[in-house]
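ingest -> fold -> write
write: protein_1
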Amino acid sequence: MKVRILLFLFLLATIISYAQDEKSKKLSLFVDRVLAAAPPVPGVSIVVVNTDSIVFAKGFGWADVENSVKATAETGFYIASTTKPFVAFLAATLADKGKIDLQRPISDYAPFKNFSDKSLFKNITIHDLLTHQSGGDNDFLSIKLAYSGDYDQKMILDLVEKHTVANEKGRAFEYTNFGYYLFSILLKEELGLDWRDLLRDMIFEPLDMKNTTSYISVAERKDLAMPYNGILSDTPQRAYLMKTDDTMHAAGGIISSANDMGKWLMFQMNMGKVGNTQLYSREVLQMTQLQKIANMHKFSPVFEGNGYALGWRTGTYKDTPLIYHFGGYTGFFAHLSFLPEKKLAVAVFVNHELGSVPGNLIAEYAYDLYLGNTSALKGHEKYADVTLPKLVEKNRNAEIKSRAHFAKRAWQLTLPKSSYAGSYFNPELGTVLVKSENDELTLTFGNMKSIATAIELPDVIRVELIPGDGMAIRFVLKDHQVQELRYNGISFIKKQ
């Protein structure tokens, strides 16, 4: 009898193993098809997990094209706004430990309690910050924390106090980075704690996420994916704008690998349990995953979004409840999601700015494959083979047309280009450098840099300090001398 039971168990394990191998092969072949259909995209890393284990983890293509470094399941990718679920969980855990109170107004905490005018902050709670219901915003913070990296703590505090404004929607839900910026500032000023170190000590290390960090200086010592953008060439083009320690912020500041993200997603589905150990309370996990706000949205054909929890978006996938978040930045796209009822989760990382379509397509295929929705797979395969190449070509043609349009523009500068060169200063935002070399004007603002192109307006130029995001810079002249430049409506005075 025992022999029969053992034989049955052996055969069952063999069948399950064979089925998993077949699924792994199918998913690998599909990812290869997606990359073949979108040649500008260099690499992808993916993980699929259930509550017990990682069932698939693999990298495809290139992490670093120039140095011939392949993407693997251990490659670190910048995950952008999918940082928010980590920071929100951190906040909930600190509240559970009595360090903070999510329902207290932030005006009870430093630095806000020390501001001379607290009116904008006194009715905002930490919970409001993390659920995007603060009713405030501050464009200066995004420029500094996410892009330029040219700041110190005093400058950030001054920007918060002097340049935070009420947004037009009032206290209604509006997804921005603002609340997470303010929460990290509160941690630093009230508790003397750095959100990056807290994530390391309270999440990354306990979950054994060895290739996950909020410090670029640490990630650079390991296998790190490089960012790529552009669509004109089938050869991936390296994006110039790289993240630094100073531009890793609490709304988007984690480097992680597919394997590590599998551990985080298993932790989420197991409600705070790692193996047989209840690492954090089930109630904390439930609180972060429970929808707080109803908000119908659809960022991709993949999911039907219906609300926001604490750091997570909520929705459905083919009528099945879903918890998820996406992240995007110059040269990167990240997809995190899980189906609590099905005990299945997927993470996809892409190191190209156009990664959302291929990344979400891969995630959808993975779900249908592992859920047994075999009838849906052919539709995904057709999309990869037919629709995706057409989208790439459509975007490529649009870019060619756009560049041709810009090339036709005539310069309308009223002085020689060399007259605009110099250093321009704003007391809140710092210095913009303008150089004139080889009949080109180049602007540098912290980590950001752009060669200017023409706009057919007097003394106005176009720059892309953030790749793909063109904006006009206007120079102000007096008595045939350049006095200032205006960037996004903000004045920078030229140093004479």
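write: protein_2
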Amino acid sequence: MTAILNEPPQGGGKQQLHNARFYTIKPRAIESLAYNKLAKCLAVSRESGCIELWNMEYTPYLDRVIHLQAEASVEALAWAGSKRLFSVDLSGKLIEWDVQQLKQRYEHSPTGNALWCIDINQQETMLAVGSEEGHINIMSIENNELTYKSLFNKQKGRVLCCKFDKSGKRLVTGSEGCVRIWSVLKGQTLHTMTLSAKDVIVWSLQVLGDNTIVAGDSVGFVTVWNAENGTQIGRQRVLDNNVFALALNEEEDRLVCSGMEPPLIRVYSKTKIRREESESERWIKYIQRDVHKHCVKSLAMAGPLIVSGGLDGILTISSSERNSERNVAQHAPFLKGSVASMATESRLLLLRYPHSVQLWRLASAVVRPEEEQQERWDQPVGHSEDVVVAKAPQKLLQLKVREKSFIQAAALSPDAEWICYSTLTELRFSRLTLEPLAVKRLEEDLPSELTPASHILFTEQGKQLLLLDPSTNRLNFFELQPDRVQFRSSLDLGAQLKGTISHLVESLSGGYLAAASSDNLIGVWQLQASGNRHAAKHLLNLPRHRAGTTALAMHTGRPRLVAAYADGRLVEYDLEKRAFTCETAEYLIPDTKHFCINGITLDPLNPNIFLVHTEEFMYVLERNKRLFSEDYVVNTKSKKYSDESRKLIAENPNGMRLKLELPRQHLVHVFRLSLDELVNVSITTNNLLASLPQPFQRKKFGSA
């Protein structure tokens, strides 16, 4: 449906869009995946030294991040209950993580050697780890503790994978050349099943409820064993080489396999085969997903969804069923939080990377003749055209930290005079001069409250700085002077928001502050405009929504807050009237079933326009309002515009309707540069994967 306005739209209507494609983040490989069915949470470990916690209850989104020590790299993950997360790494450490406080809870070194695998029995009383030297340790996790229980007889070669059976009385391990079944009580081997050759490595294991063992190996075969007597039931080639990962659905009738050559995801269905009077069950090829170009290291099942990740760092979610609305959703390895900051008048853009920040000057377009700029508004909604670039974007400077440090937040002041960025252990504050270009870091006479921050905000005038301490949820206010920073006051957000704060926004007028936390709460504080500006009081909490908050924004000059949720809902709340003024139904935008709304950009001249974006699209939504036939002309290409539009508005008069969608690729951030200019920061898949080796090439035609 396309409507053409007879008059120029309120607020202009035409927007010049800057596509900033020079954000070249490198892929961060996914090492391990673990899904918690009770908490609807997916744990993702990356080689960069972090564990990501993705909320999978509605549309998947990155909820929280646990940052590890510099030398740590998690090799495997496992869940117990809804809140206990365990990891093992090659430094030999077994760690239990506090997923609320995002820090270590317990740490053990069971063998002193590198740990390769971990598994927890179905009763959630025991934990098993396998080591480089062939040791298998059993730990007790009862009573919310982690204690040593027993050590199995040492085996030859490293233990690369392990799985408990459903009873918890037996443990199956995979190593070089064989699969072993152990008695958990005695710590002795019950059966040893050898493979086709001694140098064949067992990479992955699954144990079914009917005492069937499924093993994936380094030569591309999946072998099925009977766990009762250790006999082989079946064997078939799945890949050319290296079946790194296996996964089962909850009903245990779908087996998912993937690995290295080729990096395909192949799904097998358990099928009954009848031959004359006999009947047997076999794994038959069901579907195939060609969604990765590089090695797949880990798989997990979340209901009917297949979650996969590997060398490319892209978290891919695909369907295990043949007939589904959408088969694949791919989430790029973006950093948690804001990765871009703008100084609009100077047209400068600050980009955050894991170990550096970069300052860029945006490109400028060729100015068109005045006659062309004043042409009639006779183009349909969604019409676009390219402009000629007069001056290309320019990289002005780059500020680096040590390779072992991670930059968790960064911001550029609106007047382009200050750059502030924070690692996990220190905060750096620098004075920026453009003519000539120079950066001076402030290191002396800094207030003690200038501590590492997870969120950094400058006020619109650039005269004040707000820093959020993630350990206490305390917000500190600072006054910026030409050569110094002075602490003014602090605000305890933790009194209202107990969870990790994920979003923090301040109104442009400086009158309101809003914050969203991981426990689905949104709090609003009122900042006093007269007298001591830093004095603040808690105003209200929005009604708790069942889905998590994925984006926040505040109108310019209006006391209204706009929030987006993981179930696709978008709401507008009036802070003075304390009432919702606009809200949409769930998944008004169909794409939000697969990608959540990551950002909201509002029009200062037209409060009825809401620009939102996901990772794949930019959308323009319009508040529902009464339509008059003389205001609109129905485009000849559209059908039943009036009937459909009026029906939608009648059903939800306080809602919104989708006006326009623009396809993007891995969209990170959208800014308003001026009243008629927008900036979107994105990265193409080709640029993201450019630093990786050439993908595996396989024959696509004439092959199975």
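write: annotation protein_2
Residues 26 and 691 are 7 Å apart (CA to CA).
The longest strand covers residues 278-289.
pipeline exit 0
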